[in-house]
Amino acid sequence: MVNPWLAMETGADPVEHTRTVRRAHAAFLSDGTVAPPVRRVVADSWRRSADARAAADGAAPIELDEAALGTYRDGHPLARAMPVFRELLGSFAQDGAHLLAVCDPQGRLLWVEGHRGVRRSAERMNFVAGARWDERHAGTNAPGTALAADHAVQIFAAEHYNRQVQRWTCAAAPLHDPRTGRLLGAVDITGGDHLASPHSLALVQATARAAEAHLAADTPELGVCLSALGRDEALLVVDGQRLRLGRRHSEIMVLLARHPDGLTGDQLSVLLYGEREMRPVTLRAELSRLRHLVGTLLHSRPYRLSRPVETDLSAVGEALDAGEVRSALGAYRGPLLPLSEAPGVQRLRGALEDRLRRTLLAARDPALLREWSRTPWGEDDLEIWETLVNTLPEHSPARSAPMATADRLRAAYGLTTGSSPRAVPAPAAARVATFTQPPPP
Question: How far is residue 292's CA from residue 140's CA, in Å, rounded to a whole number?
């Protein structure tokens, strides 16, 4: 079976493959159709890039200046893994005329190292530390697509969505926190067409696993962690072992984690099903299947979790309690179980999003407001855009783009100048289906 994450089969002609994919790319930009030989992972990425209105030409945006970059990456968990990256990929990049790059979960490049001449060439498309290379801002590329798919991937030449990047080939692998299982970022090697081989993909995968092992060695106590923000299927990590839950089990685990003293069957049924008539055996069957997966973590009478569970939902709330708005925004990976219709989950989802938005609006920090507006759940948030406009100096050129977006949204919502944007429904509910669900671990 052909590995779908590899760019080309062994023995394929890279020149002919480039021509074929370039024609397919032009057709996609023209009429939105895509067909073989374009790989499914690339076709899906092209569609996400187009939906996000990523530029098909131009350089990636730079979001972190030198001062902000230094402070941010010094405190980033992947800083502890840089010796591993440099040992396993540094000389490979330097000797082979490649680049070693490491990014955060938002696709911001934190380190770009390697061959000096290649670095100078990459600077022309802003492949530099501080630039944002997620799919929404740079289109299909190995680090951005590895983050979106949560899987190691190779992107060859014309498979890149942005034409300026199509002379490059790259391979990247995501990295996860060994304690929580949450995405920390990705490691990437970028260079010429000769990187389109199974060896480069295997190398970045092995490097990512070595880095995670290095981080795990510094994590003496693992515990139980649950990640459910921006995911329809929660990720449960128990002492380093990862388990992707189904949707109903995800809802149950989120609700029990929020009620450490436990819930009766009737209480849990109301939070899951609302006022619908449900036979008690339905809930008991779900809990029996969940117990089969998590073992002694789930207790009954009342239903409760036997160990403390750290959740990403609580991490955002704790950061807000501490007044750490930037940390809260960084921990917020999207609405809680966005497709869930369970009443208890809907209340938790709405309360957290509303609290975070209100905190951002009150803080009136242009950088934080921009960060929220660049997300799938915040890009149509009129109140955020108008607040951003009002925080910028009156004659600043930086006001023009947010003003244009605010005007477009007002027209779309049928609002006149001066009417309150608070009348607009929260945008996240209308966009939940856009979230990329990573494959099972």
Answer: 39
Supply the pTM of this predicted model.
0.83
Confidence band, pLDDT 50/70/90 cuts, at residue 172: very high
Q: How many CB atoms lie under 10 A from the CB of residue 192?
A: 15
Closest CA to 6 of 194, 197, 172, 168: 197
d(C-alpha 421, C-alpha 320), whole Å: 24
User: Measured in whole angstroms, how far is the alpha carbon of residue 56 from the centre of its chain?
Assistant: 21
Q: How does DSSP assign 299-366, residue by residue?
A: ETTTBEESS-EEEHHHHHHHHHHTT-HHHHHHH--SSBSTT---HHHHHHHHHHHHHHHHHHHHHT-H
Name the residue with tokens 């990403």: 312
- Strand pairing partners for 243? 236
| Whole-angstrom distance, CA of residue 150 vs CA of residue 330 | 18
Q: What is the pLDDT of residues 206-248, one digit of tens each?
A: 999 999 999 988 776 778 999 999 999 999 999 888 999 999 9
Domains and CATH numbers, the chain: 14-217 (3.30.450.40), 221-364 (no CATH)
Cβ–Cβ under 8 Å, residues 356 and 328: yes
The residue to which tokens 């480069």 are assigned: 200
Total residue count of the chain as it appears in this document: 441
- The closest of 76, 139, 65, 136 to 104, measured between CA atoms, is 76
Number of H helices, E strands in the chain: 18, 11
CA pair distance 403, 390, nearest whole angstrom: 9
Pairing of strands 224-227, 309-311: parallel
Q: How many CB atoms lie within 10 A of CB 41?
A: 20
DSSP category for residue 62: B
Q: Cβ contacts of residue 112 below 8 Å, gap of 6+?
A: 99, 100, 101, 119, 122, 127, 128, 129
pLDDT tens digits for 249-304? Answer: 999 999 999 999 999 999 999 999 998 877 889 899 999 999 999 999 999 999 99
Residue 74 parent element (H or E):
helix 66-74
Phi, psi for 53 (deg, rounded to 5): 60, 40
Cross-strand partners of 226: 236, 311
Identify which of 329, 409, 338 has the alpha carbon closest to the alpha carbon of residue 371: 329
Residue 267: its H or E element: helix 265-273
**Rounded CA gap, 14 and 20, in Å?**
10
Cis? peptide before 37, omega within 30° of 0:
yes
